[in-house]
Amino acid sequence: MPDVVVVGAGYAGLCAARRLRAAGLDVVVLEATDRVGGRTLTARLAGGWAVDLGGQWIAPAHTRFAALARAYDAATFTGHTQGDNLLLSKTSSRRFSGELPPLPPHATAVLAMALWKLDRLTRRTLTTTQAERLDSTTVATWLRRRLPVPQARRLAEAVLGAELSVDVASVSMLALITAIRGAGGLRAGTEAETASALFTDGADGPARSIAAELGDAVRLGTPVTSIHDTGTDVHVADVRAARAIVTLPPPLAGRIHYTPPLPAPRDQLTQRMAMGAALKTFAVYDTPFWRADGLSGLALDLEGPMTFDASRPNGPGLLCTLANGPAAHHLTRLTPAERKATIIRSLVRGYGPRAAHPVDWHEKNWTDAPYSRGGYNAYFPPGVLTSVGSALRAPVGRIHWAGSETATQWVGYIEGAIRSGERAADEVIEAEARFQDPVIPD
Ligand SMILES: Cc1cc2nc3c(=O)[nH]c(=O)nc-3n(C[C@H](O)[C@H](O)[C@H](O)COP(=O)(O)OP(=O)(O)OC[C@H]3O[C@@H](n4cnc5c(N)ncnc54)[C@H](O)[C@@H]3O)c2cc1C
Description:
- The protein is of the alpha/beta class.
- Among the domains are: 4-38 and 203-273 and 380-436, 3-Layer(bba) Sandwich (FAD/NAD(P)-binding domain), CATH 3.50.50; 102-194, Orthogonal Bundle (Guanine Nucleotide Dissociation Inhibitor, domain 1), CATH 1.10.405.
- The chain has 15 helices and 23 strands.
- The chain has helices at 11-22, 63-71, 105-123, 128-135, 139-146, 150-164, 173-182, 186-194, 205-214, 250-253, 264-272, 325-332, 336-351, 384-388, 414-436, and strands at 4-7, 27-30, 42-44, 50-52, 57-58, 76-78, 84-88, 93-96, 197-199, 218-219, 226-229, 234-236, 239-241, 243-246, 257-259, 274-275, 278-285, 295-301, 306-309, 317-324, 360-365, 378-379, 399-401.
- The protein has a five-stranded parallel beta sheet with strand order 10-2-1-14-23, with helices on one face. It has a four-stranded mixed beta sheet with strand order 13-12-11-15, with no helix packed on it.
- Helix 1 (11-22) packs parallel to helix 15 (414-436), helix 3 packs across helix 6 and helix 3 (105-123) crosses helix 7.
- The radius of gyration is 22 Å and the shape is globular.
């Protein structure tokens, strides 16, 4: 009988298993799909070039992910960011330099004030009353109150919506503050984003290397539908183990049937958290032709997807388009051909007629993925954190919880997934060590 069964072979599950194995425990990983990596997924172009259809960026502060990259020789490169960025609308395209498009002076001042207030909130120790007030407020409501100038508000809604991968009217303000704190604060989080790098051979590379090391312990094509905790062991699919670590995002973990039933707060939590929506596409060109026009490849569309230059050094030109929340829902309702045509029209608006003829096209709609059902991550609607949020990480009997959503640092990032898996593994190692301690009579 293995010591631990891990459910899910994304970064959280694989890193939990790696840690457990290093501690001498016997582990089995059950994965529903036919691959590892979960919400990271690398496709290959002609010539073997990688494109990341899921998570892809790593920031300097992502130290655990960087350690894996070193351990498994996964090279990274800094993405191309030189040149002007674009602000797109349904009919026009405007160049700008710097991180955010220029706003009228009054709007800039109002935005700076709102960012200062947000920064202060993330640094302050909150009283219970303040936390409850923030948890009963959506990010949209907070922005409406602090940003009375529509241009500044629209920009903040678009940028935060893209970060959270969901309409800002759906997310608790307390959840946003918690996430910013977990990224080291507003300034550190923003710096980390702007200084981020990509994996030359794809972000799922280290995950595949860990799986290769774990060998037969990783069982693909094994969806877990029920977990039975007998009090002395757990039964998961056909595996019996001393303990289980479930690494699925909470809304998917809630689809598993548990006996005995989970305590009410944990079940309520999985009922009330929901997945964001993300749809990612890659238009492939022979060369990154936009660079010759002095363009960075970054385009911000306040109504639609964001676009980035994701080209590998000396590789073909890659324009990566990321649609989140309402933009992803809109594109999902179209046929694949309509979706491609809509995105290409927006690329042509920004980058001219050469953008009309990509040599290759890749897309991944994460809301359609049966074992992810959305992305980037699950989010907290108002009222969830302060009522049942304490059930997010608390083990239930012999079941432990991991996954990016459960991270205390870099929640929602691959870094958070790795740290959460290692934290859950440590919980199990400690619990098992306690059981193995010889009982010495007084
Ligand atoms: C489009 C997109 C872009 C992103 N961009 C970035 C980025 O640039 N940088 C970054 O750091 N993060 C990014 N993220 C977020 C990051 O990818 C995730 O937070 C992270 O990969 C989650 O890892 P995890 O192990 O917690 O969960 P997952 O990767 O979701 O792993 C869970 C695993 O469980 C499996 N599973 C589900 N149900 C069952 C079941 N019943 N039985 C067995 N197995 C099951 C799934 O198939 C999956 O393999 C992005 C995500 C998306 C979708």
